[in-house]
C-alpha cells in the first residue's frame, strides 16, 4: 500500500477534479500491475493497473488508495465493475471515498460480485496524499498551501523591496516541485506588478506540469491569468484540488486572516535582514493566547544552506 500511495502522490496536481489515486496489483508475491490516475482524471488508477497486469490480474490482489468508483461516467466503466470483470480476487483499500456518488457503494458492489474487500490499510498516508481532493469534497474548497521564503528574523525583503534571492538553489528547486504538485498557483497583484513572475515549473522533465496561474485582485483581469477578487473565491474553484499561494505579504495576510490556509511552507535562509519587509500584517489576533493551538509542526528538511519548516492547520475533525 505504501507503494500505491507513492504512485498516487506522483500524480498530484494533474488529476483534478478527480483524486490522485495509486494502485498496485500483486499475484504470488510479485507486483504484476501498477497504475496512477491519468492527467485530467482519466484513466483511473485501477484501469491503468489492470491493463498493465493483463491476464495476471485474474486471482490477484489489488491495492488501491481510495475506494473504487461506483458512479456511471461517459468517460469509462466504473472501477467497481472493471475489477471483478478482470478476475481480481481481493481488494485492499486505504479509505472510503467521501464523494457521495461512490461513498460505500464501490465496496458494496465489489462484495456483491464476490470480491474479498479489506479497508483502512495505510489510511493516514492516503489521506495526506489526497488532502487536496478530500478538502474539496469535505470543505468545498481546495487545500491551500502558503509558501514563505524568510530570513532568520522573518523578513521577506529589504526595505527597498529587494528579495531575490533570499533562499538558495535547493530551496527554490523544492518550490518548483511544490508547483508541479499544485493545480493552481496564486499571487497578489502587487507581486505580479513588482516581479512579473512566471510561476512555471523549471525542473528537468517536469516543465509540462506548470499549474494554472491566478491573481488575487479587484483590478482588471490579466491575459493568461485567472482572477480571484477575495480569498473566499476559493469556494468556486470546483476543479482545483491543491492551491499554492506564493505571495506577497498582503495576499498571505488575507488568506490567514480568513483562516483558509491549511499548510504553511517556510523556507528559512540563514541570513539576518534587520529592518525590512515583514512576511505578514494583522491577521485578526489580539492576544497571544489566541495564537496557540492553531498550528502543529509537520515535517521539515535541510535544503542545501536553507531549512524547510512545515506547519499544518490544526482543525477540529482532522
Give the strand order of the largest sheet, numbering strands 1, 2, ... along the chain.
Answer: 10-9-8-11-6-12-15-14
Largest sheet: 8 strands, mixed
Q: Quickly name the level 1 CATH class of the largest domain.
A: Alpha Beta
Helix share bin:
25-40%
Gross morphology is elongated
* Architecture (CATH level 2) name of the largest domain: 3-Layer(aba) Sandwich
State which percent range the strand residues make up.
Answer: 25-35%
Low-confidence segments, ≥5 residues, pLDDT <50?
Answer: none
Number of domains: 2
Q: N- to C-terminal separation?
A: 22 Å
Order of helices and strands: HEEHEHEHEHHEEHEHEEEHEEHEE
Protein model, in words:
This is Riboflavin biosynthesis protein RibD. GO terms for molecular function: 5-amino-6-(5-phosphoribosylamino)uracil reductase activity; diaminohydroxyphosphoribosylaminopyrimidine deaminase activity; metal ion binding. With 318 residues, the protein is of the alpha/beta class. It is built from ten helices and 15 strands. Strands 10-9-8-11-6-12-15-14 form an eight-stranded mixed beta sheet, sandwiched between helices. α3 links the parallel β3 (61-64) and β4 (90-93). The mean pLDDT is 93.
Short structural description:
With 318 residues, the chain is α/β, with parallel strands linked by helices. 25% of the residues lie in helices and 25% in strands.
